[in-house]
Write a structure and sequence with these properties.
236 residues; mainly alpha; MetI-like fold; 9 helices; 77% helix; globular
């Protein structure tokens, strides 16, 4: 296993770069970060729509979230892969396909995290903001979301861990990520699949374990911070 890693560590790390497209672990992290960053505004919009008192906002948002969460990610990947060229009129690469599918998929899951974070806030926060004369949107943007996002940091890190693992499905559409790099190494060696995919498993485990530990650390920090004085709303 060490010999395989010694001879192919660069392929696992950055794929064929600089002699080809960047891939490997670098592309896995890049796609996970980009997907979460792009889906974040959509997730906030879905969460706020689900909490809206207006049925014409709440019902469609609820339907979207439950539909997306009820379908496997691989289906979104295939839909994106085959439908996107028909919509935009050109072929779409594996990386772009996977990012688009992840944005749609993760937006639904992240919206539930955001919604739970908002609902977990004391109602007195909103009432205090209203007493200061803040309307719905200023209250949401200046009071509710900052506190909710702070409390949601551990869950968001955990969702990032899930996204990293989900990028491995990009292998089926030849997205040059970590699993695809491992398959390239295995195709060259042919006789050592257990060692190659053992390295792959250890890489995912080490990365996800480190991030999960970070999530637990953040959660402890937030929990210890709650032992202090409650937050005070300051008028802008």
């Amino acid at each position: 296993m060490l010999e395989i890693l010694e001879n192919n560590w660069l392929l696992f790390l950055v794929g064929q770069y600089p002699h080809g497209p960047i891939g490997g672990l670098a592309m896995t992290l890049f796609m996970a970060v980009i997907a979460l960053a792009l889906c974040f505004p959509f997730a906030i919009a879905l969460a706020l729509a689900r909490l809206s008192p207006y049925r014409w906002l709440r019902l469609p948002a609820t339907a979207i979230v439950h539909t997306v969460r009820g379908l496997p990610l691989i289906m979104f990947i295939f839909w994106t892969y085959f439908v996107s060229p028909l919509v935009i009129g050109r072929a779409v690469g594996g990386v772009e396909t996977l990012v688009i599918a992840l944005v749609v998929y993760e937006a639904a899951y992240l919206s539930e995290i955001i919604r739970a974070g908002i609902e977990g806030l004391p109602k007195g926060q909103v009432e205090a903001a209203r007493s200061l004369g803040l309307r719905y949107w200023p209250t949401t943007i200046k009071v509710v979301l900052p506190q909710a996002l702070h409390n949601m940091l551990p869950s968001m890190v955990s969702q990032f861990v899930s996204t990293i693992k989900e990028t491995s499905l990009g292998y089926v559409i030849s997205a040059h990520e970590l699993t695809f790099a491992a398959s390239q190494v295995n195709n060259v060696l042919l006789t050592q699949p257990f060692e190659v995919y053992g390295i792959l498993a250890l890489t995912y485990f080490a990365l996800c374990f480190a991030l999960s530990s970070l999530a637990r650390l953040i959660e402890r920090r937030i929990s210890s911070g709650r032992g202090g004085a409650p937050g005070v709303i300051v008028a802008a």
